[in-house]
C-alpha cells in the first residue's frame, strides 16, 4: 500500500464517521442546551434572596413545625385530662343530687315530681 491510498481511505473513513456522528452530536448539543434551560428555570423558582441555603432553610422550618405539633399534642392531652376530670366530677355531682333528692320528703303539692 502506498501513502496516497492510506490518506484517501482515512479521509473517506473520517467523512463516513463524521456523517454518522454529526446528527448524534447535534442532538446531544440540543438536549444539553434544553437541560441547561430547564436547570436555570428550576433555579429561578427555588432560589430566593435569603442568605440561607434552600435546604437548610426548609430543614429549620420543618424542625419548628414539628416542635409546634408536639406542643399542640401535649396541649390536647392536657385538655383530654381536664375533660375526663370534669366528666368524673359531673358524675359525682349527679350522684349527690340523686342522693339528696332521695333523702328529701316529697311534697304532695309538688306536681313537678310526677
From TrEMBL:
Domain of life: Bacteria
Region named Disordered: 32-62, 88-114
Keywords: Membrane, Transmembrane, Transmembrane helix
Keyword Manganese: no
Ranges of biased composition (kind: Basic and acidic residues): 53-62, 88-101
Entry keyword annotation includes Protein biosynthesis: no
Transmembrane segments: 6-26
Stretches with biased composition (Polar residues): 102-114
Residue spans of biased composition, Low complexity class: 33-44
Name of the protein this chain belongs to: Septal ring factor EnvC (AmiA/AmiB activator)
Species this protein is from: Antiquaquibacter oligotrophicus
Amino acid at each position: 500500500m502506498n501513502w496516497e491510498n492510506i490518506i484517501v481511505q482515512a479521509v473517506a473513513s473520517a467523512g463516513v464517521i463524521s456523517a454518522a456522528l454529526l446528527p448524534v452530536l447535534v442532538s446531544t448539543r440540543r438536549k444539553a442546551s434544553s437541560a441547561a434551560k430547564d436547570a436555570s428555570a428550576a433555579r429561578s423558582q427555588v432560589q430566593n434572596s435569603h442568605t440561607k441555603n434552600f435546604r437548610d432553610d426548609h430543614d429549620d422550618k420543618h424542625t419548628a413545625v414539628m416542635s409546634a405539633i408536639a406542643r399542640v399534642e401535649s396541649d390536647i392531652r392536657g385538655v383530654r385530662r381536664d375533660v375526663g376530670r370534669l366528666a368524673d366530677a359531673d358524675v359525682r355531682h349527679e350522684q349527690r343530687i340523686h342522693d339528696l333528692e332521695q333523702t328529701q320528703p316529697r311534697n304532695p303539692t309538688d306536681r313537678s315530681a310526677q
